[in-house]
Amino acid sequence: MSGQSGGLGDGPGADRFERLLDDLLATGDGVLTGGGVAARLVPVTAIAFDERTILKCRYSCPAWGRRWTCNDDAWGPRELIPLLQKYEKVAVLTGVDGNELFPAGLAFERAAFARGYFWALAVAVTPCYTCPECTYPEADCRHKPDLRPESAMAGIDTIQTLDSLGIERRPGGAFLRASFVFME
Ligand code: SF4
To answer: 69: Cβ below 6 Å to ligand 1?
Structure first.
């Protein structure tokens, strides 16, 4: 599915994401108005996928088995890589403030959907940072409508992806975070 013109995003400030989408479609680059989120639109082939990301999830991440996003029953690289590789393009959103970046990724997904990219899917945007502790496995995710795969569970090698795109990962010494919105 490809985009159509004339759709509307939802929620306050949705026009910022419409403008960002316009900029990305026109030039391939953009910055979210009023914020510290930059974006680049790339073909899906620019995303470095590697099934081995699951090794880092399972054997070195303290969140493994403790969150809805990251456990034995959640879809991982084997399920998600083949599906994500079917997309045409990806908006790579970056910023040093996750509190700003992750909601922006979700809002951008919604803006893309409203524009006609009906398969739009955000990765690495679930607002786990807002939860004192996860409800897993006793109760549903507190943010179930916003639950998306984490980047490593999606098989995305974020470091390799950013490096191959020439995106500085430690701007000013800070740690750059990345979210991805797959679009078609
Ligand atoms: S958003 Fe909260 S409840 Fe949902 S998976 Fe993350 S930590 Fe768990």
So the answer is: yes
